[in-house]
Amino acid sequence: MKYGWLTQIGQLLLVLVLAPLLTGITRKIKARFLRRRGASIAQPYRDLLKLIRKETVIAENASWLYRSAPYVIFATTWVAAALVPTFAVGLSFSAAADLIVIVGLLGTARFFLALAGLDVGTSFGGIGSSREMMFASLAEPAMLMVVFTLSLFAGSTQLSSISEYMLGPHAGLSISVALALVALIIVSLAENSRIPVDNPATHLELTMVHEAMVLEYSGRHLAVIEAAASLKLLLYLSLIACLFAPWGTAASGDGASAYAVGLAVYVLKLLALGFALVVFETAIAKMRVFRVPEFLGVALMLGLLAAVLLFVSRLTQ
Amino acid sequence: MTAPDPLIWNQLAATGVGLLLLLAALAIPFASRRLGVRLVYGACSLVCATLAAAALPVLFATESTSAVIALPIGLPLGQTLLGFDRLSAAFAVVINLTTAIVSVYAIGYGVHAREPLRVLPPYPAFIAGMNLVLLAQDAFSFLVGWEFMSIASWALVVSEDRSESNLRAGLVYIVMATAGALTLLLAFGLLAGAQGNYSFAAMRQSGAFGSAAIVLALALLGAGSKAGLVPLHAWLPLAHPAAPSHVSALMSGVMTKVAVYGFARIVLDLLGPPAWWWSVPVLLVAAVTTLLGVLYALMEHDLKRLLAYHTVENIGIIFIGLGLALAFEANGLATAAALALTASIFHVFNHSLFKSLLFLGSGAVLTATGERDMEHLGGLIRGMPVTALAFLVGCIAISALPPFNGFVSEWLTFQAILVSPQLPQWIPRLLVPAVGATLACAAALAAACFVKAFGATFLGRARSDAAVAARETDRWSRTAMLLLALACLLAGVLPGFVIDALAGVCQMLVGASLAPQATQPWLRIVPLDPARSAYNGLLVFVMIILAAAATSLIVRRFASHALRRSAAWDCGYPDPSPITQYTSGSFAQPIRRVFGSAVFRARERVTMPHPGDTGMARLEVELHDTIWDTFYVPVIRSVNAASTWLNQLQFLTIRKYLTLVFAALVLLLIIVGTLR
Description:
Chain A is mainly α. Chain A has helices spanning 2-33, 43-53, 64-83, 99-119, 123-154, 159-167, 175-191, 210-213, 219-244, 256-283, 292-316; one strand at residues 56-59.
């Protein structure tokens, strides 16, 4: 139990430190794929430092909600990211929140982000919020269906239980797991505004979604929001690693060496997933906005199919 | 210390109902003065608080109390039986708690009524009717209370009779309410059986007369029409917004719960042990209701109608829980049934809190601006910061986002859905994952709906002069809204106490209850097994607060403090006119494109001027209320046709009338003769 607290606090700090690095690495790899040299992998840290040192400019009619939203978004994303086991299971807060709560916390963050987009009353903010909520209306149920499928396997919605189950002898290759994985990947792309759903690097007005919502933000507010966005990417990659590739994670009673191994394996997993993300992004073109619902609809249907298959297979046993 | 006789609490509650009726009469002379109006609402609030307090001991009673007051009035040779049991006590606490707070709001808001004499007397009568339904221990007083509630609320709906739409709403409402009461009457008739004993205790003993399927169908129709199950919801988005806002809050937040109580009483209590297939129609209707309710709400731009449609969605969520409880109970999965039932009644509690809060907020907006149409609002967060804060809490809670209360009940519903592979039958097993997906979809759409509602009303730039001039509402109204917002937070972070309070209800209806939650470490809730699922709202809330505080402290310490206000950037092309903002209609447009073409047969027509022509482009959107067209229009048409045809009977000669009378007499004699 005393390790639980240490691990929990360690993880809170770890995700915070690693998140900008992950963003930097994916940007670097992507630049190399596009035959550019790219900025250093430390660039996101520099960007954050630069932003918080700058003067903050806010619109004349911005309300208290606009000024407090970045902190709410960051806090909920950070708490959610801290609840996903990364290098060790048995976090002391893991009993406080299961996978559905993590989905809910990300929902709270998105809710505030969409409201912040509407606060100043510009058309770009509105377009971003409106599209974000439309994507979410399909991505969130798809995510919940993935949660359903996995928790039907493991008999639990707790992340550490699911992770232990996937390591155990009962978990074999199954169609439902594969379908759930594909659905989760699609959801992760949409939730992190990656190509083909959105483009994190774009500033072409009519194609942006996430960037449109945060268009009016500057200075320290923007820094906090950018940090939240990198945390969210880290969260989704950790979630995929924790659910579908839980090998090497330290268990609650293990010694210090297991923790070191867990940490190293976790970093490797993040690198591999980040690399795969970049390969996928480079290979595909961005979709029109109204093609995205079809793309996300696929995720929802795959998730539902995975859950129904499980319900049926349990029946025949 | 000896516990007082349980009869005392029922006597107290019955006295409370009597007092409310007295208040309704007293309100007539009081309505002409502002102070009188305030006094009546204040008294309503106190009586409701007392009623809630009277129901609490019954809710926590370990044994089902049999302390029923018998009054020698009612049906010939019958008695009126009054008293709470654990089921009605749970609903009584919910209803009276919310009503007490709403009445505090009305102390400030009620004086704005244009004709207080039309609002003030039916208000206490309406509350008395709802409480009578809950107190009733026999079908007769249940139905008397039910009709009282319907008629008093109808009077409140048509209290503002200057607009034609309100009168139409009143007409649709009274027709639906009458039809619903009729089906309930038939359901009770079947339950009472051949002996005709209308007390609930006797019905419970005898079970249904004839087919349980018919009683189930009648209960779904009767209670469902009052609660707003699709397709019987049509009156709800018309009538709820038409009433003054504090009454809308009661109708949407509270009266629909009385309907849920009616359904639970008949189907889960009086009808005897359920069969598994009962859950199928309930789940199907509930899932359709959930999804359609939120889609209809998304298409609305009238704030109060949006809220009313959203009630339909929440009723769907409540009925999903009830349907799951039926399926589990029929298969002997008592703990799972208790989980589903707890989720459902918890959502009843939550919805009464946040829906009332949102309606009160819309009332404050209406007083400040005279507008309900969100396309003419905007930017109110600056003029009305307290209302905006309370409304925001309501929006987060109703969108089922942690750490507020809406999330807890939906989380419990999801946990109940995840137990369903244990069901042995094929049909519910295949149905339940689909219901789960529908619920997940509805939760995400609800968030979109309330981003739209809050964003269009409170954020952005004001779209009308009234919105620019809007000022904060009065002290009483603010207090009531903040109280409800606080209740939403408390129920969200300390859900264990609510779950424990519902243990008695579960024990009574499904014979099992969830393990006590208040003794769990760190106030977390564990519905079934800690390895399976757990949620700690308090810890999540504290962590969010700590994380936000730490972040802002660090930013404050290390970041530049320079802050400058300037014109909005908007990619370099800010438009000075507020009409270029996103409106509620444009916000919902992507969702309308994704879901609307199937559900609403939505069509968009864009007319572009020719190149070189400087005329305006036009975008026309066409939406159809498919349910109204499918279910209601044929009925209305045939009633109209029949009445036109029968109308010729009004213009006959005396000779023809005499012939008709003679023919009718002969016909009746023939019928009597053949029946003998």
